[in-house]
Amino acid sequence: MAPLTIQQATKSFGGLQVLHGIDIDMNDGEFVVLVGPSGCGKSTLLRLIAGLEDITTGEIRIDGKGVSRLHPKDRDIAMVFQSYALYPHMTVAENMGFSLRMRGESAEVQRRKVEDAANILDLGPLLDRYPRQLSGGQRQRVAMGRAIVRDPKVFLFDEPLSNLDAKLRVQMRSEIRSLHKALKTTIVYVTHDQIEAMTMADKIVVMRGGHVEQIGSPMTLYDAPANVFVAGFIGSPAMNLLTGRIGADGRSFELAGGGTIRFDAPLGAAAGREVILGIRPEDVTLAEDGSPATIKLIEPTGADLHVNLDVSGTEVTAVFHERLSIEEGQAVALAVPAERVHLFDPETEARIAGD
Amino acid sequence: MVRWQRGLWLFFLPSFGLLALVLLWPLGYAIYLSFFDYYLGSGERTFVGLANYADLLTEARLWNSMWTTILIAFGSVGVEFVVGFALALALYRLNRSAKVFSVLLFLPHIVTPVVAALFLKWMLASNWGFVDATLLTFNIEPPDWLGSPVWAKVSVILADAWVFTPLIMMVLYAALQGLDTSLIEAAQIDGAGSWSTLRHVIVPALIPAIIFVISIRLMDVFRFFDLIYVLTGGGPGTATETITIYTYQLGFRMLEVGKASALGVITLIVVAALLLTINRGLNKAYRGGDQ
């Protein structure tokens, strides 16, 4: 349990700089998720925290103590790897107790701590098995058990759920979440899956190209994405990002590809200004007095209805939670509440303030 | 329901035939001959039962060659394994440009053993050989590399190591490439130092490759012939006479084919027993007997 601070961290491999001045403050006991597309530097950042890669410049502090130059074992961290990295020739108990053994703890202490961790994770009956005799979910749990046994200041998770099937992934998501509630240890968790980030995090760090794009709570990122990238990355299906300009009345949006979407209130940007207009699919409704559109494609997921609408040649995705009697090719009218609209500057791609 | 499978044994025939011809028939024939008193060229075979075996097993020369073989086998495979593994680990840590050297290290293995042995023989020749000449310029009196019983054994062991260390290095290096690096990283985080990581993580992960390469080399070294034949011919005296050299002497110098066959069978049994033991031992040590 400790706060973790990253200050101006950079990392270069040879001449290639992969992290550009990362600043993140993580509070004591916080669940922080690093999320971004592959190659964004999130795993490298995690490896810097773990000490598996040397930081090029900058500083990492755990519990106020600079650890940038320390060996991984002296940083008081534990890590769960994507491949689980269980020692294949050791039993579950030996795997979990390995760090204690390396630390020179007595057999009695090893046994007690391993049993405690096994109880938390329901691993008791598996302690004498070898990793190859376990299912994916059980291996995942052993990897977490190995981390818990060490009672570290910070847990690091590197895409731990990506090797599991969809159902197990949902289950492990909530298990990790409740484990965090019970242990109250600071967690840094890397994933490329924005759903994982949204459901698990206290704080999400969105990264792209070695830069931090935005840091905030899941709902902050959802409600007020700082830029076009975050807007498109967080949320599923992705936000509709439409290019065009604000209409002369300030309450309509003229699409670059032709056609107009009208709103119920002023959009909060000067009339005639070029903008990127973001609309979350779930904010789209069908209304009799809305803007004209045609239904191109209907994808029922069971719970929801994903609908692709054609607005004068521009495609807009909508999600409806209710069952609608609509069919492909049908002419409809769409409406979006003006307060749910996101505006971005087309040059800087940054959010336009004041909306 | 699988009628077409009945004809499949026809496909099995050619390979089985070839195997029978080059492997099973000579083996069977050797076992058969080992029960006869048979001199090459005499045309007369007398069935003697297990007399050849009894003769051999009570003979000091057989036990001498057996111990020599075991000493040379374990000595050279030991040296090869330690040096080869160290080189493989070094190579694993090195960057790309340094890997060019691995090709250079492999050179002795590319050379035919007989050629390598001839080369070494010139290197080790008394007084004017490269090694002696070098030592003498530093006023160091060189030992008689191939003439003294002890140094002849050492020379043979080092010669074998020179030729076969690269093989072990490459096999273990290839195995290291297949190692999940996150295992090593997990061990680092768990607080294991370099030695503990090697002992508790790397070596156990490489056990299949280690068993393979040690078994192959031991099998090979028990058939060790060409290098010794060229370097020392089994001498001085019988100081470097291995079982294969002795078998050759029996069969082709003394023409006692029956007895030589019996020795071949004994060698086969010894090697098979040895390999089984090593395999079991290593498996047990690192997998808790769990196959």
From TrEMBL, chain A:
An example of a Gene Ontology BP annotation on this entry?
carbohydrate transport
Superkingdom of origin: Bacteria
PROSITE patterns in alphabetical order: ABC_TRANSPORTER_1, ABC_TRANSPORTER_2
Keyword ATP-binding: yes or no? Answer: yes
Domain annotation ABC transporter: ranges: 4-234
Alphabetical GO CC annotations of the entry are: ATP-binding cassette (ABC) transporter complex, substrate-binding subunit-containing
One Pfam family recorded for the sequence: OB_MalK
Query: Which UniProt key words apply to this protein?
Result: ATP-binding, Nucleotide-binding, Transport
Q: Name one GO molecular function term.
A: ATP hydrolysis activity
InterPro entries (alphabetical): AAA+_ATPase, ABC_transporter-like_ATP-bd, ABC_transporter-like_CS, ABC_transpr_MalK-like, ABC_transpr_MalK/UgpC-like, Mo/tungstate-bd_C_term_dom, NA-bd_OB-fold, OB_MalK-like
UniProt KW Transmembrane keyword: no
Q: Which PANTHER family match?
A: BLL2173 PROTEIN (PTHR43875:SF10), MALTODEXTRIN IMPORT ATP-BINDING PROTEIN MSMX (PTHR43875)
Q: Name the family the entry cites.
A: Belongs to the ABC transporter superfamily.
This chain's protein is named ABC transporter, ATP-binding protein
UniProtKB/TrEMBL annotation, chain B:
Organism lineage:
Bacteria, Pseudomonadati, Pseudomonadota, Alphaproteobacteria, Rhodobacterales
The cross-references to InterPro entries, in alphabetical order and at most eight, read: MetI-like, MetI-like_sf
Species: Salipiger mucosus DSM 16094
Kindly give the membrane topology term recorded for this protein. Answer: Multi-pass membrane protein
Q: Gene3D superfamilies this protein is in?
A: MetI-like (1.10.3720.10)
* Chain ranges of the ABC transmembrane type-1 domain: 66-278
Its keywords, alphabetically, are: Cell membrane, Membrane, Sugar transport, Transmembrane, Transmembrane helix, Transport
An annotated GO BP: transmembrane transport
Q: Does the keyword Protease apply?
A: no
Name by which UniProt lists this protein? ABC-type sugar transport system, permease component
